Amino acid sequence: MFESANISRDNDTRLVELARDISTAQWAKPSLCTEWTNHEVLAHLVVGYGVALSAVGSAMLHHRGSFDVANAELARALAARCSPDRLLDELAALTRRPRGIGRLFPRRLLLGDHVIHELDIAYALGKESAVPMSTVVAVLNTEVRVPNPFVPAAARSRGLDLVATDANWVHQDGGPVVTGRAAHLVSVLAGRPWALSYLRGEGVAVLSSRM
């Protein structure tokens, strides 16, 4: 079994415990994921672990086949029905026993999705990343190596030399250099333009054009 299954479980367990300290007012604040509150981001994580394939298909049909719009609708609807505390309880249970699309989605990509969204919440609240560096590096390796139909991180990294300044991680692809903290590289490759200002090097302009 790929190691990310264990890393993903451990990371979600840590995330649930950490998120218990987020206040009701903080959950209601905008996240750094476009148009979602922190509460809706949390609901998205639960949707990704437990929604039925039929529900995804029905939502996509309603929105002319758009997975992104269907995904956003499902997350908002779940957030409207469930409090953050209830969603955290559900996430903790699904971490141990995924349902629906959560049983089919590759754990490499699930880990990346959850780390990216944790950063969306943490940085929106003015907090630093609490994700273990080994986990951040695992996500970076997935972003630059594994094609993802939902987050084109590998395409964004193509032709660039990426260097993490706070970890032993380098991605060399024979092009202009981008340097920065590992978590900021993760966020930019996931399409978060806010993190571009924390990066340095000639390749930053290239990344900016790929947002």
TrEMBL record:
SUPFAM superfamilies: DinB/YfiT-like putative metalloenzymes. It comes from Mycobacterium stomatepiae. InterPro entries: DinB/YfiT-like (IPR034660), Maleyloyr_isom (IPR017517), MDMPI_metal-binding (IPR024344). GO terms for molecular function: metal ion binding. This is Mycothiol-dependent maleylpyruvate isomerase metal-binding domain-containing protein. Pfam families: MDMPI_N. Gene3D superfamilies: dinb family like domain (1.20.120.450). Residues 10-97 form the Mycothiol-dependent maleylpyruvate isomerase metal-binding domain. It comes from the Bacteria.
